[in-house]
Every structure is written in C-alpha cells, then in structure tokens.
Write a structure and sequence with these properties.
Length: 169
C-alpha cells in the first residue's frame, strides 16, 4: 500500500518539459522529507554526480510555460519569489539524488523499485491499448463490410421495378 502511495505521489509531480519528464527540486524535497535548501545543498556538494541529463535549471520561459499548463501556480509548486530558477531532475537524477541525501525517508524510499513499478503499469496499459486498437480496426472493417452490403442491396436512385403484369399496347 505504501508503494502505491509513493507511485501516486510521483505521478502527480512529474512534469513534461519538451522531450523529457522531470520533477522539480521542491517536490522532491517534500517527497524525501527535507527542505528544498537542504536538497540543493546536497546537490551542490555533489555536483559532479549530476550532469545535464540528470539535473538542470529551468529557464524563466520554461517556468512560465509550465505554469500556463496549470490553473494556479501552487499546483506546480514552484515559487515565483525564488532567487534562482528551480532545478529539475530526470529519472537518473532522482535516483542519484536518493543516494546523496542523508534523510531517513530518502533511505527508506526505494525510488528505483518505484520507477520499475511505474514502468510495469505503463507496459500493462500499453498492452491493453494495443489490443483495443486491434479490435477497433476489426470493428471498423466489419462496419465497412456491412455498409457495402447495405449499399449493394439498395435500389439505384431513379430506378424502380413495379410489381405486376404489364399489358401490351
């Protein structure tokens, strides 16, 4: 049950930046039970462990673009009063982060296991969607055949065959 709660929480804090999924430093600090300041200090002390494909700062434009996707800025959980733009972490950066934080919760949360479970769930849904797509194609073919049969059996426009006997003139 606890893993399911963590998965739900993770899914709620994943944001799309063109081409990649990321999580903001503030949300991750909350997840790991530390202050954002403490999380960022740990990153700064271990900056060599966080290359650009693990962690980067959002530009002001990216922050504005993300905010525009939400009704309120609080949903994004990024403060507009912050002195610097927020850091965001990719999946690899989040795993690295769990290794450099010393909070009890960071040690307890097995983030890698959580990501594996998320992938399994996505894979299961992908299989269901693929099967539904296959059935949708089959149903469309069936409707096409039925439509063709209906068209073939309807009389041509303007042509009517009268039933009965016709006397010669």
């Amino acid at each position: 049950m606890k893993d399911l709660q963590i998965i739900q929480k993770l899914l709620n804090i994943i944001y799309m930046i063109p081409g990649q999924r990321v999580m903001p430093d503030r949300d991750l600090a909350d997840l790991y039970g530390v202050e954002t300041k403490v999380l960022n200090q740990a990153v700064t002390r271990n900056i060599e462990r966080f290359p650009d494909d693990f962690m980067f700062r959002l530009s002001k434009q990216e922050v504005d673009d993300l905010r525009s996707q939400f009704v309120t800025a609080n949903e994004l959980n990024i403060s507009s009063k912050s002195r610097s733009e927020p850091r965001v972490f990719t999946e690899q950066g989040i795993v690295m982060l769990s290794g450099v934080l010393n909070s009890k919760r960071a040690i307890q949360i097995n983030i890698m296991r959580t990501f594996v479970k998320i992938r399994e769930m996505i894979s299961e849904y992908a299989d269901v969607i693929e099967r539904l797509d296959h059935h949708e194609v089959q149903i469309k073919k069936l409707f096409d055949v039925v439509s063709q049969l209906i068209e073939d059996t309807s009389p041509a426009v303007g042509m009517t065959n009268k039933i009965g006997f016709k006397l010669p003139n």
